[in-house]
Amino acid sequence: MMNPDPRTLRPLARAVLAAAMLGMALSGAARAHGDVTPQAVDTSSLPKLGEQWRAENPFRGNSGAVTVGTSAYNQNCARCHGIDAISGGIAPDLRKIDNDCASLKDAVRKAACVKEIDDYFLTTVRRGRTRNGAVYMPPFEGTMNQEAIWSIKSYLETRRDKPM
Fold first, then answer.
1. Is domain 63-158 classified as CATH 3.40.640.10?
2. Contact 154, 62 (CB under 8 A)
């Protein structure tokens, strides 16, 4: 058997090593995205809402809640739903969550629609989303109180795709 020329072996070995390192780096990033631990949120600056979960967002239009919600969103939601709530296409784009309500002209129907979206949002965040045994979104109840969850909703309302 003939020995390979060392001058051609070195560049090939470098290319193989570079490809292996790139593969390891990308697989680490993919694993990091899938292993998300919910982070607690400091809501001490917000009014306490009590033990009973509210049916509608009590912090709608509250600038202090928007500030807390912005931080909470960045800590817990942005990695899947996108920076500034602009989704990269994998998880739902939360700027569009209440688009159907925005187009309603009747004030009573619009209010009912907003309440329904609030309920959907709250239920989803509290319980998470699982399909066929796969966790698509972890449950945040127990990690986040309702002040934190409603502050995130308040932040998202400032990021709406269609204004109300």
1. no
2. yes
User: Whole-prediction pTM value?
Assistant: 0.77
Task: Give dist(CA 108, CA 44) in Å, integer.
Answer: 34
The SS3 call for residue 160 is: coil
pLDDT in tens, the chain (164 residues): 566 565 655 665 666 655 555 555 544 444 434 456 788 899 999 999 999 999 999 999 999 999 999 999 999 999 999 999 999 888 999 999 999 999 999 999 999 999 999 999 999 999 999 999 999 999 999 999 999 999 999 999 999 988 88
Burial (CB count within 10 angstroms: exposed 0-12, middle 13-18, buried 19+), residue 96: middle
Residue 162 near residue 103, CB atoms below 8 Å: yes
Is residue 146 within 8 A of residue 54, CB to CB? The reply is yes
Q: Identify the three-state secondary structure at position 136.
A: strand
Taking the C-alpha atoms of residue 90 and residue 108, their distance in angstroms, rounded to an integer, is: 34
| In the chain, where the domains are located | 63-158
Pairwise CA distance, residues 93 & 1, whole Å: 60
Query: Residue 142, exposed/middle/buried by CB under 10 A (0-12, 13-18, 19+)?
Result: exposed
